[in-house]
Amino acid sequence: MVITNDVTLPEYSELKTDEVKLSTGALLTASAFIGKQCEGVNNEFMLCRQEQNDPRACLEVGKQVTACAKEVLRRIRKECCQEFNQYANCVDKSSRDYTFRHCRKTQAIFDDCMRERLCLLRNDFGYFCRARIHKSSSDPPEPPPCPCHPKVEDATPSLPDCKPRKPARFGGRLYWCND
Amino acid sequence: MDQACQVARKQDLPPPGGYKPIPYKRIPAKTLFSGYTMFAGYFGITAFAMYLYSLNYKQIVRDQIEMRSAKMAIYPMLLAERDRAYLKQLRKNRDAEAELMKDVPGWEVGTYYGEKVYKLLPPDTLVEPIFHEYYAHSGTWEWFQRAYLKLRS
């Protein structure tokens, strides 16, 4: 392993949180609403993850992401449980790659329920594929140190300037061209 | 000798009235379409097929965008969950290595008898271990399942 004792790894208790225990089909079914409702915290998490490039640095935001997704799913279950289950079942069983194309009717029923009871609208088509601007409240990380300064000492330092530089005792290897 | 072979001989001759004339006249196949009609038909059918293709292509692109959009919406949640599981497993691996090598004198966890893999990195840098190291302390079956994930998907 490359993980030494110097590396700070979070304790199990810090990593423990209430995970979303749903299958792929159900998650993809709810993805539009999860993505829209948790857009800010999701963007914050992905920004942190990209900037720090270290899973340890973004644990707290990650927990917020999961909590937000759980909150959305809890609201869906409270208000539109049957419609959601119908749609998720259709997505799950209609194809092997969870295509939504086969489930437009159940999707319309689910969207109606979400609109009427939770006042949540589905985003326009391909919303999450588009580039969006996120205004983050966190500060950008410190830039890495300039790579022009070597971190290690030179193993073969050059002769100090104070030392005398005598001509070579046996001449150079280029004697035939420089004299 | 000549007298012994006196047999009435019949010469092989054409049938009476002569042979029938040889039918060498060309009989062309019935032409259903002229050349111009066939060219026109080719281009017409190709154009129609390309129209159908474009419809299908647009449908496929729409489906791909929809699926990608759905996946990107839940990706942060999945990544957060994956990060927690990953860090949990790293700690588990480190503890397992410490437990396994506790009787070896001079062994330090994460190093080869104190010699680090990455000497110039700051000490608190998380270097992601390679696949075989990550699965070093798990069973063969878990390793196989992950390594040959494509067999199941």
From TrEMBL, chain A:
Entry GO terms, CC:
mitochondrion
- Tell where it localizes: Mitochondrion
Q: Does the keyword Iron-sulfur apply?
A: no
| Origin superkingdom | Eukaryota
Q: Which UniProt keywords apply?
A: Disulfide bond, Electron transport, Mitochondrion, Repeat, Respiratory chain, Transport
Electron transport keyword on record: yes
Mind telling me which InterPro entries this protein's record contains? Answer: NDUFA8
Chief subcellular location equals mitochondrion
Name the Gene Ontology biological process terms: mitochondrial electron transport, NADH to ubiquinone
**PANTHER family noted in UniProt:** NADH DEHYDROGENASE [UBIQUINONE] 1 ALPHA SUBCOMPLEX SUBUNIT 8, NADH-UBIQUINONE OXIDOREDUCTASE
**What family does the entry list?**
Belongs to the complex I NDUFA8 subunit family.
Any idea what job this protein has? Answer: Accessory subunit of the mitochondrial membrane respiratory chain NADH dehydrogenase (Complex I), that is believed not to be involved in catalysis. Complex I functions in the transfer of electrons from NADH to the respiratory chain. The immediate electron acceptor for the enzyme is believed to be ubiquinone.
Know the name of this protein? NADH dehydrogenase [ubiquinone] 1 alpha subcomplex subunit 8
Species the sequence originates in:
Spodoptera exigua
From TrEMBL, chain B:
Q: Does the keyword Hydrolase apply?
A: no
Principal cellular location given in the protein's record: mitochondrion
Localization in the cell: Mitochondrion inner membrane
**What is one term from the GO cellular component aspect held by the record?**
mitochondrial inner membrane
Keywords on this record?
Electron transport, Membrane, Mitochondrion, Mitochondrion inner membrane, Respiratory chain, Transmembrane, Transmembrane helix, Transport
Q: Which InterPro entries match?
A: GRIM-19
User: Is Metal-binding set as a keyword in this record?
Assistant: no
The highest taxon in the source lineage is Eukaryota
Membrane topology recorded in Swiss-Prot or TrEMBL? Single-pass membrane protein
Which Pfam families does the UniProt entry name for this protein? GRIM-19
* Residue ranges of the TM segments: 33-53
Function, please? Accessory subunit of the mitochondrial membrane respiratory chain NADH dehydrogenase (Complex I), that is believed not to be involved in catalysis. Complex I functions in the transfer of electrons from NADH to the respiratory chain. The immediate electron acceptor for the enzyme is believed to be ubiquinone. Involved in the interferon/all-trans-retinoic acid (IFN/RA) induced cell death. This apoptotic activity is inhibited by interaction with viral IRF1. Prevents the transactivation of STAT3 target genes.
The record's family statement is:
Belongs to the complex I NDUFA13 subunit family.
Q: How does it assemble?
A: Complex I is composed of 45 different subunits. Interacts with CARD15, but not with CARD4. Interacts with STAT3, but not with STAT1, STAT2 and STAT5A. Interacts with OLFM4.
Protein name listed in UniProt: NADH dehydrogenase [ubiquinone] 1 alpha subcomplex subunit 13
